[in-house]
Write a structure and sequence with these properties.
By secondary structure, this protein is α+β, with helices and mostly antiparallel strands. It has helices at residues 3-14, 45-61, 82-96, 138-146, and strands at 21-28, 34-41, 100-102, 108-114, 121-127. It folds into two domains: 3-102, Alpha-Beta Plaits, CATH 3.30.70; 108-146, no CATH class. Helix 2 (45-61) crosses helix 3 (82-96).
Length: 147
């Protein structure tokens, strides 16, 4: 096993979960286009703000420059709009500053309960569901039933 991988495993093993902070980075674009990314790392808010400022300066330095195939992101485009700018910032924070991309299922929650079951402690899962229903016109329904 390479030494840098081994060191990374030790650091993650010694790290307490309370030491990892999550930061939500998002943008809103024309016609309601929206994207958000959760990044996590063992840093203070001040350190994160320094890192995201450095990432912004990096992305800004690429504005209008043609990116060659196989180089950064390998997409061959020029940085000219907010979504591309955003992706450059995320790339910089993940690849250069070693933030972790995280995800969250906002439709699932777990609750720890006490005394509500035969067990002294229970864990309950709450899942939000979306139901779609057609709105029916009562007169149309009546006419269809008469036919």
């Amino acid at each position: 096993m390479p030494a840098n991988v081994f060191i990374g495993v030790i650091v993650l093993y010694k790290m307490k979960m309370s030491d990892i902070r999550l930061f939500k980075i998002c943008y809103q674009w024309y016609e309601g286009e929206y994207q958000e990314t959760l990044l996590g790392k063992q840093v203070t808010e001040e350190e994160f703000e320094k890192d995201i400022t450095e990432a912004r300066k990096f992305a800004q330095s690429l504005l209008g420059k043609e990116i060659e195939e196989g180089s950064y992101l390998g997409k061959g485009y020029s940085v000219a709009c907010l979504p591309e700018y955003y992706h450059q910032i995320i790339w910089f924070l993940v690849e250069k500053k070693r933030y972790m991309e995280c995800s969250s299922d906002k439709d699932v929650e777990y609750y720890v309960e006490d005394g509500s079951t035969e067990n002294p402690i229970a864990v309950e899962k709450k899942v939000k569901k979306i139901e779609w229903q057609k709105i029916k016109d009562k007169e149309e329904e009546k006419e269809a039933a008469e036919k």
